[in-house]
Amino acid sequence: MAPHHLTGFPSLAAFIASDQDKTAAIFKRFNRLAARNLLHLQSELAELQAKQDKLDQQELSGDLKSQQYSRNWADFCAAAASEATQKERMELAQNIRATLKEYRKALLFEYTLATLPPPTKRTLEAFRWHFFNGDPAGSDSFPTLGGHSSGLFDDEDDLMALRMAEDQDRLTTFVQNHLSFLFQARFHRATPHLPLIVYASDRRMARFVIVLSITLAVVILVGSIVSLYIVRSPNKKLGMIAAFTVIFASSVGVLTNARRAELFAVTAA
């Protein structure tokens, strides 16, 4: 018997962890806060850069001794321990170092997050049914998390799935959206009043798509060869060649993720 988890963080964490394909690992991006944080760091660096330029200009008009500090790091460090001006420059350099590191780290984090895919509509729909303990639009539903966390999953454009989705062709998408009932792996119901959530195996669907793709490719190839061998009329052969070319190009576009240039090249070949 499956253990019963307290409604809240325990039940939501158990639901996310129960998905072996990790498609239910859906979290909020906080894009607005992330953009604002980058803007703050950017503006802070702009102020530090202006301050650095100002000190450089002051040192440019100073004596040779002070200018030497901008050429020799050891002299600069020694002077920072005794001279107030150089101490200020050292503190500024350390502040720039720390802020620049934080800014670039934040940029790399955002770059990484930007590559994470959004959740699929069917997965998000099931996730919301569980999160709201029923129909999200129903009067009897209530969010699993309270306070401001109750609206975490409202904005679909601000959500991401941690599992990196493989490149999916149109056939795979069609199978996932319309034939997923054929690949049911297991079921999940946290409480008796919640609807039954069905897990479909991505691995089984991927194997099915591979077999179907190979079968269709063989049928198109062998069918065209046999048909052209049987038909004797040149005019009919030209028509059949045109028809098979269209069928082949369409199948490549549907069964693969070929780009437009690749589609033209393969069809011409």
UniProtKB/TrEMBL annotation:
Alphabetical keyword list: Coiled coil, Membrane, Transmembrane, Transmembrane helix
Keyword Metal-binding annotated: no
InterPro entries attached to this UniProt entry: DUF6594 (IPR046529)
Record protein name field: DUF6594 domain-containing protein
Superkingdom: Eukaryota
Domain DUF6594: 9-269
Record-annotated membrane-spanning stretches: 208-231, 237-255
A Pfam cross-reference name: DUF6594
Coiled coil (residue ranges): 31-61
Record keyword Membrane present: yes
Organism of derivation: Glonium stellatum
